[in-house]
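#onboarding

Welcome to the new folks! Below is a worked example of what a typical request in this channel looks like: someone posts a single protein sequence, and someone else replies with the predicted structure as tokens. Don't worry about understanding the tokens yet, we'll cover that in week two.

Example request:
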Amino acid sequence: MSDLFWLFAIFAICIWFWQLRKQNERAQVLIEQRCQELELQLVSVARDHICFKLGERFLEQTFVFEFSSDSENCYQGYLRLSGQYKYHFDIPPYRMI
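Example response:
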């Protein structure tokens, strides 16, 4: 019985890690697309926090990204990604050239 428990625990950790990687890759693509749409230069992307919820979108992550509009100033935006398809951007006002 103990062996079965440890096997299930290792399997669950692998699935969790795999889902995190999928979300990280999806977030990177979404942020790059949004920056291209708004004609911004992407500086960096980092995960801010992870939240577990019950339901079909059980894994919610928040990413913080830095961008520049004029190569002088740097701004921080946020992406909240729930599951793979539900997302919300929070982009502050920035200087346009």
